[in-house]
Amino acid sequence: MKQLWTRRQILLAAAAGSLAACGRPTMPGQELDLWTLQLAPKFNPYFADLLADWTRSHPGLPVRWTDLPWGSVERKLLAAVFARTAPDLVNLNPPFAANLASKGGLSDLSPLLTSDVEERYLPSVWQACRDDEAGQIAIPWYLTVRLSLVNRSLLDQAGIATPPRYWSEIPDFARRLRDKTGRYGLFVTVVPDDSAEMLETLVQMGVQLLDDRRRAAFDRPAGRRAFRFWTDLYRAGLLPREVVSQGQRRAIELFQSGDLALAATGAEFLRSIQTNAPGVAAVTEPHPPLTGPDGTANVALMTLAVPSQSHRREEAVDFAAYLTNAANQTRFATEARVLPSSRQALMTIRNALEQEQPTTAAEVQIRAARLLSAQTLETARVLVPALPGIKRLQKILYTQLQKAMLDQIGSDQAVVSAAEEWNQYSRSRWPDA
Questions:
Q1: Which of 191, 104, 384, 166 is nearest to 293 (CA)?
Q2: In this predicted model, what pLDDT tens digit does every residue of 169-210 receive, in sequence order?
Q3: Count of CB atoms within 10 A of residue 362's CB?
Q4: Do the first three CATH levels of 7-143+300-371 and 145-298+384-429 match, i.e. the same topology?
Q5: pLDDT tens string 359-368
Q6: Contact 113, 313 (CB under 8 A)
Q7: pLDDT beyond 70 at 26
């Protein structure tokens, strides 16, 4: 059963539709509309070249590019869907793509794709763009792999030779850091509408989130152990107090101020650390990410989807294939310091990194981090499935975990309460599951 739109979403859509009516009228069929996330103005030259090349080979199909701030895309896209002004191709993350697809808002691309297209992309990220009910709802674009950026100076002060590789090593690591330096080992937020890192961490710890009927599967021993792990860590004062009130951006702030020993983030953030905190950057080392016992790392993926309202779906898929071909992904991933979803582009970038001979300490550091990211991708996948309602599940789990951390309820009770709340939602949304 498809979820009904909320009254708030309808009002937002109506307001946005009224505003759109005051602006430039939409002329369907004249051009393809592409929406991306947080790429302008840094990548304006890249898109200028890319769109010029496309127009030369497709003179009758120009593309209008619109870039949106990260925080506004969901609201604007929902509004555009209601106003029937949705773009032909939109840059989404998998959770929002799954939610939109469950409401009939995205096209199943399967009939529009050639038989060999899947072979062009990394298998793990291609699979992450599929939905059991809605089909192939997106094409993978670019991705990042989380690393452990480590403040070597703090580890030396605490007498720690190597940073932790597994979550099971974190309690001892965090306690030694706190006792010896007064600083914190790591920061993982439980703010409900922020990063999915905690959700991904639960999966790495062996927690099955949902069963085949989309009912709670986390109310089992592995889920209770994981909730107890984070609750005990927080109550012992081994996590910053702000993990319950501030998002993952706070981790970078604490790391740059020298108050955090390990920041779980992508290689692309090294440049900003070098700029904002050169002293900390000078003692920063990239290390493999924290994982569970099986060593599986997480991939954060960005995709391209075709809204079901598009009248030019075939052309939109052609443009998505062009945008994500090996040559264009290689250039974009190099400029953005991210990783491509294209197998050929990844091979090209990895070979280039292995042959690169940087001349400054900053570039040596960035090369090491990017090469490690490319190597980590071999044992990485999208850990949290892009299921409808996954953001609701995150909110429920985080809210109950917050209560346990703040000693309002026990950690086992937090798991039970989260399961009850999710199952109530799940039964109302998928009664026949």
A1: 166
A2: 999 999 999 999 999 999 999 999 999 999 999 999 999 999
A3: 16
A4: yes
A5: 999 999 999 9
A6: no
A7: no
Domain ranges of the chain: 7-143+300-371, 145-298+384-429
175-186 core/surface letters (b: 16 or more CB in 10 A; e: else): bbbbeebebbbb
The pLDDT, as a whole number, for residue 17 is 34
Q: What's the pTM? A: 0.86
Are 37 and 76 within 8 A, CB to CB? Answer: no
Cα–Cα distance, 85 to 28 (Å, whole number): 9
Distance CA 157, CA 180 (A): 7
| CA gap 122, 298 in Å, rounded | 14
- At residue 99, the pLDDT reads 83
Query: CA 184, 185, 186: angle at the middle one, nearest 5?
Result: 100
> Please, are residues 304 and 142 in contact by the beta-carbon 8 Å criterion?
no
- Amino acid in position 273: I
Q: Which residues contact 39 (CB under 8 A, 6 or more apart)?
A: 47, 67
Span 145-298+384-429: which CATH code? 3.40.190.10
Of 399, 389, 222, 188, residue with least CA distance to 293: 222
Write the pLDDT tens digit of every residue in 200-222.
Answer: 999 999 999 999 999 999 999 99
Q: How far is CA 19 from the centre of its chain?
A: 30
CA distances in angstroms from 4 to 94, 121, 427, 432, listed in the order given = 20, 34, 14, 17
Please tell me the CATH code under which domain 7-143+300-371 is placed. Answer: 3.40.190.10
Cβ-based neighbours of 67, under 8 Å, separated by 6 or more: 35, 36, 37, 38, 39, 40
User: How confident is the model over 259-288, as pLDDT tens digits?
Assistant: 999 999 999 899 999 999 999 999 999 999
